[in-house]
Each structure stands twice: as structure tokens, then as C-alpha cells.
Amino acid sequence: MHQATHDYAVQLEWTQGRIGQLSSPELETIIECATPPEFPHGIPGIWSPEHLFTAAVSSCLMTTFLSVADHSSLKFEKFTCRAEGILAKQDGKWMMTEIHLFPELTLSPGEKEERGIKVLEKAEKACLISHSIKTEIKMTPTILQYELY
């Protein structure tokens, strides 16, 4: 039986300048994060809140897709997803206005393209992170057939 809520603990510690470290008592990996270079004192080459926000939507699409594909018995060989988050001013405030998802799905031999698209669309509609935000999500899937050589 599923419990009514789930908690995800995250700790942030400022280290220097505009840099901090994200950690969780539940996880081994520490992620360094910083102000993006487009803003004053921003630092290139480090994950920013904007990268993490975009990654949350993309990774939710993947995990939801894996669940829906499993439920649907969809056979596939590969899943990748490029994502682009758009930061823009809206009503005088900076916000992530859009996220464009470009999933690429390679189907196993015998699987139909329409079924792959249907499973991806169902996953995109069911993504709980997408449900939790105001940002407009746009998905442009590419379906490939696995070729035996």
C-alpha cells in the first residue's frame, strides 16, 4: 500500500562566492550548484537552479515513461532526452516559461511507431513534476526502429 505522502530531504551549504553544495542524507552524490553565468557574479561550468529545474522535468519524463512502458509491455532498446529550459521575463519577473523535451526512443524490432508515441505522450501527461509547475512543457518525440546488422 502506498503512503499518503513522500518526503525528500535536501541540504544546501554555501561554500564560497555564488557556489553551494546540494546533498541529501538519502544519497551519496553531492552536487555543486551556482548562479548561472548570465547573472551578476554567475559561474560557468556548474549546475545552476535553472539546469536542475530543467533536469527535474526531463528525468521525470524518463522515469514516468519507464513505468508506462513497463505497464504497456512496450519493448525498446534506447531512450534519451535532450531538454531545453527557457528563462524569460513574464509580468516583470524572471521565470522558467517553457521546457522543450526532445525524447528519442529506439523501439525493439516488431514494435510499432504509433505505440511508442502513445506511451511517450501518456508519460508526458502523467509526469508529476510537470503537474507541479506553471512552466509550459512542449514535447517533440523522435521514434527510431532498432536495426539488426
Note down, in words, how this protein is organized:
The chain has 149 residues and is an alpha/beta fold. The chain has 2 domains: 7-47, no CATH class; 49-145, GMP Synthetase, Chain A, domain 3. The chain has helices at residues 49-72, 113-126, 128-131, and strands at 11-16, 19-23, 31-34, 76-90, 93-107, 136-139, 142-145. Strands 4, 5, 6 and 7 form a 4-stranded mixed beta sheet that branches. A 3-stranded antiparallel beta sheet has the order 1-2-3, with no helix packed on it. The radius of gyration is 18 Å and the shape is globular. The termini are far apart. It comes from Algoriphagus alkaliphilus.
Quick synopsis:
The protein is α/β, with parallel strands linked by helices and 149 residues long. The protein has 3 helices and 7 strands.
